[in-house]
């Protein structure tokens, strides 16, 4: 493999997405490799947020129904556009809530425990918040998590196998809920095969798309996934604390929301002020409260960029960037005991590369001192995520050179090997 900077420059010259970098605010001289935790701000997102601020400033309460983008239907219209990113019908997606709130909503709506089926299966590598939500939901249903919550085991501590997942799908399981991409290792699960496997046993399937939406194309409707939840502030670049999203397949739209709220009403009847709930016809029924419009508006600008670029191009560049990154890691710093724990095959890799190293926390601190923004995940993972919209191949090359210098000169040893409060 060619490890010269000239090769990286040539790759950038051939990149059909290179002009999108101009759309983002990039900290000067900084190499940002943490877009899988928080995406950078785009000028489009800034503009759409400013547009909403202007409508409030100029129209006051009339902004709910007047202007170019009335607030009353803002989330519904945006949701139709987000649906294309995840391969869903326009009525199956809703921009609303957060991952945790939306997990509670989906379980409250679709989990109907019986004496025969009362188990929810998750995995032992999942993000803690998802587990907290499932455990608390089971307790609210009067079920003991020690009995009704089971976790798929990992053979290597980084990845899951289809065999291990299938082994957990016994006759008493009602719902299987997994991440589409494992947040530590970056493993991309086979959503279609897992869904088919679970459905063949009468089990509903949900996925947390936090680490795949905006990086990996999905076909949720065609693959018959029952539900999904996600955030928009990672690869979708909607800003810190940006509103999340949910998907629920149209075959479940007759279900009343388990957590009913005013904004889940039929929009034509919402202001009737009736105490009789009139459910919206699609995924909008599973909203709860008034949209957090200042957290929703930046997503509109970001979605414009995805529409212009196309998810196929986003994915192709992401795969090329992460493959180039791992090749450089092996060639330039492989001798320094880094272990690449991300699956090799393109179809099993999300949008980041995960390196295990016993000194991971202090190496991340040294990288930040060298003006590189990585991501640390306990106990020993360095996550590096070059982003299709604003990372170049030369950025990746330069980042590895800085890492090589840190390791060769052992400057990381001047830092403690303990994570910061926010890793």
What does this structure look like?
Keywords: Hydrolase, Pyridine nucleotide biosynthesis, Pyridoxal phosphate. Homodimer. Pfam families: Aminotran_1_2, KYNU_C. This protein has helices at 5-13, 43-59, 74-85, 99-110, 128-140, 145-148, 162-167, 191-199, 293-309, 311-333, 360-369, 393-409, and strands at residues 31-32, 93-95, 119-123, 149-152, 173-179, 204-208, 227-230, 245-248, 339-340, 353-356, 372-373, 375-377, 381-384. The protein is of the alpha/beta class and 423 residues long. The protein folds into 2 domains: 5-32 and 310-414, Aspartate Aminotransferase, domain 1, CATH 3.90.1150.10; 48-308, 3-Layer(aba) Sandwich (Aspartate Aminotransferase, domain 2). The strands form 3 sheets. It has a 7-stranded mixed β-sheet with strand order 2-8-7-6-5-3-4, with helices on both faces. Strands 9-10-13-12 form a 4-stranded antiparallel β-sheet. A two-stranded parallel sheet has the order 1-11. Helix 8 links the parallel strand 5 and strand 6. Helix 3 packs parallel to helix 9 (293-309) and helix 4 runs parallel beside helix 5 (128-140). The mean pLDDT is 96.
